[in-house]
Each structure stands twice: as C-alpha cells, then as structure tokens.
Amino acid sequence: MKITSIKQQVKNPERVSVHVDNKYSFSLSLDELVAQKLKSGLEIDKPRLTDLKKISDEGKIRMKALSWVLLRQHSTKELRDYLRRKKVDSELGEVIISDFLKRSYIDDYSFAKHWVEGRRSSRSSSQRKLQLELRQKGINAEIIKQVLEDGSVSDAAALVELIAKKGQLPRYRDDPQKFMRYLAGKGFSYDDIKSALEAQKIS
Q1: Cα–Cα distances in Å, from 200 out to 114, 125, 157, 174?
Q2: Per-residue pLDDT reduced to its tens digit, 134-174
Q3: What is the pLDDT of residue 173?
C-alpha cells in the first residue's frame, strides 16, 4: 500500500486528509503528520495503516474533548464523565485527562474558585450548599476548604444579602414561612435564618 496524496482540509486547515492507494483512508492534525513522518509516495503495510487510523481516531477524540473543555471551565470529574458518555476507552480517557491537567486546560482549584464566585454573585448560597455542589463536581475537600476560605464572604453576610434581595418580593414578604423554606433550601441553618429575619423585622 502507498500513500498517494496528503491534502489540507478546507474546513479545518489544521488537519490533513490522507489517501492510500488513491482512496481516502484517515485524517491527522499537522502535528501528528509531522510526528509520523508521512509523505506522498510512502509505502506502508497493514499494521502501520491500522496504527495510523488509531492515531487519527484518538486525535479526533482529543480535539472534541478540548473543544468541549474550552466552552467553559470544567472540573476533572466533569471531563471524565464527558469522556465516559462518549464511550472513550478508559485508558485513553485517563491519558487525555492527564495531558489536559498538565496543560492547565482543566484545573480543579480554578474551577472551584470560579464556581463559588459565580454562585455568590448570582444567588448568595451558604457555605454548606457550596460545599455540597463542589463535592458533586468531584472537587476534593482540601480545595473546597481553601476556596471557601479565600472567598471571604461569610454565611451571615451572604444570608443578609439574600434576605435584602428577596425579602421584598410579595411571595416571600407575605409568607414568612415560605421565605424561611426558600432560605433553608440555600443551605442556611434554621437558627441563622430566624435570627437574620428577626433582625430585619421580617418574621
């Protein structure tokens, strides 16, 4: 078998289509092409062709995973779950995860910090609620502790902020018990909620 042509793809200039015996066979990134030292006229055998197709398939998986990761920040667990949903071989999945960690495409501390900042600014969640959410995202206890300590917003301050923001809404202003259930759903303790509402003369 012979590589008869290598053509740069129109829709994706970073990849090339490789034809073997005048038929499309597989595609590679430019970096993969250079690493494999391929050129037109090169003779290859069946095992070599099989290896090249495997490299092609793995490269496509890697690029899809990278495109997904770059949409927003993700945790390591989220990436592992994504690869599992895509039915990626577990060994290859771990290689991709390891590579993405080294390149800082994923970073659990950065993800957790961004998550906490977003939740604090949008809906004033308690420390307990944030801990639960981060654990569900696969963030380890040490990172959770560090991120929440760095956040510098106490539960008391977050609770006061949330009461001020939501307390004047008719559905909560006219139904203190409903308001308390809403605040409890954010992870705040009953005693803290009761004290904060009494201080603002809402209960």
Answers
A1: 31, 19, 13, 15
A2: 999 999 999 998 888 775 555 666 677 777 777 778 888 77
A3: 75
Which residues contact residue 8 at a Cβ distance below 8 angstroms, ignoring those fewer than 6 apart? Answer: 15, 16
**Cα distances (Å, whole numbers) of residue 198 to 12, 124, 146, 162:** 62, 19, 32, 14
Q: How far is CA 109 from CA 97, 132, 133, 148, 201, in A?
A: 15, 16, 14, 11, 39
82, 66 Cβ separation under 8 angstroms: no
Strand partners, 24: 19
pLDDT under 50 in the chain at which residues? 203
Q: In what order do the strands lie in the sheet with 23-29?
A: 3-8, 15-20, 23-29
Query: Residue 153's pLDDT is what?
Result: 52
Using an 8 Å Cβ cutoff, are 134 and 73 in contact? no
Please tell me the distance from the alpha carbon of residue 28 to that of residue 57, in angstroms, as a whole number: 9
pTM for this model (two decimals) = 0.66
Taking the C-alpha atoms of residue 152 and residue 157, their distance in angstroms, rounded to an integer, is 10
